[in-house]
Amino acid sequence: MAPTKEMNEVVVSKCYECGSTMEGKLENYRYTECGLSSVVLKNVLVFRCKECGVSQAQICDAAALHRVLACMILMKETRLSGLELRFLRKVAGYSATDFAVVSGTSKSVMSRWEHRPALAKQTDRLVRLICAHKLLSDILCEAGMPDADRDRLLEQARESLTNMEETLKRIQAKKKGRRPVQYEIDPVMLSRYGTTDHASVAVLQ
Ligand SMILES: [Zn+2]
Questions:
Q1: 57 C-alpha to center of ligand 1: Å?
Q2: Where are the beta strands (DSSP E) in 50-101?
Q3: What is the C-alpha separation between 37 and 34, in angstroms, rounded?
Q4: What distance in Å separates the CA atoms of residue 182 and residue 179, rounded to the nearest whole number?
Q5: How far is the CA of 15 from the centre of ligand 1 (A)?
Q6: What is the DSSP string of 66-90?
Q7: 199 Cβ neighbours under 8 A, 6+ residues apart
């Protein structure tokens, strides 16, 4: 995008903790609010408070972001962690009780799964298939979703799900000699699937 006058404008917001002024600028942001330590939002508007030190990224459409992230996690080539299971379960809209019923287990076993660093082979596959199915059926059946949004989400689901079989064949215990998987999401990627456009962020680049 061509540089614009807005490039150098300081964006401010009111601190949700102490009420003083927060200044926003574009940076990479580790999005731990989603419950995972491995997600980095690239080039998002991050507001920081100089008084109390809190920071917050501007997320225009958390539901879209979480769906993009869920699709990335479904394609992961190493075993899911318990925290990734919990994230997928929540994006798919399952309570722990519902997920236990659907996966044919108990809530206490579910809780153990969610505290494991890596799921067992078959549990991993079961979790992915249940969550992929639920995400897809939500996209197909969600009432009131504009057609354009549904088309974009279906495109995303098509990319992830057509490769699901290959992913299932390839899942390894862990990647040898490589750092743990990190998920990076940039605004362009998000705007392809979001239900709101990210012009307010894009114009600042
Ligand atoms: Zn503050």
A1: 14
A2: 55-57
A3: 8
A4: 8
A5: 5
A6: HHHHHHHHHT-SBPPPHHHHHHHHH
A7: none
Question: Could you identify the residue written with the tokens 């899911």?
Answer: 80
Q: Where in the chain is the domain with CATH 1.10.260?
A: 77-178
Q: Which residue has the tokens 């897809």?
A: 136
How much distance in Å is there from the Cα of 40 to the middle of ligand 1? 23
Q: Tell me if 198 sits within 8 A of 190, measured CB to CB.
A: yes
Cα–ligand 1 centroid distance for 92 (angstroms): 34
What distance in angstroms lies between residue 96's CA and the mean position of ligand 1's atoms?
Answer: 35
Q: pLDDT tens digit string along 99-116?
A: 999 999 999 999 999 999
Can you tell me the distance from the alpha carbon of 205 to that of 202, in angstroms, rounded to the nearest whole number? 6
In tens, the pLDDT along 71-109 reads 899 999 999 999 999 999 999 999 999 999 999 999 999
Please give the model's pTM, rounded to 2 decimal places: 0.82
CA-to-CA distance for 35 and 38, rounded, in angstroms? 9
Q: What CATH class does 77-178 carry?
A: mainly alpha
Q: 46: CA distance to ligand 1 center in Å? A: 13
Give the C-alpha separation, 81 to 115, whole Å: 8
Residues with CB in 5 Å of ion ligand 1: 15, 17-18, 49, 51-52
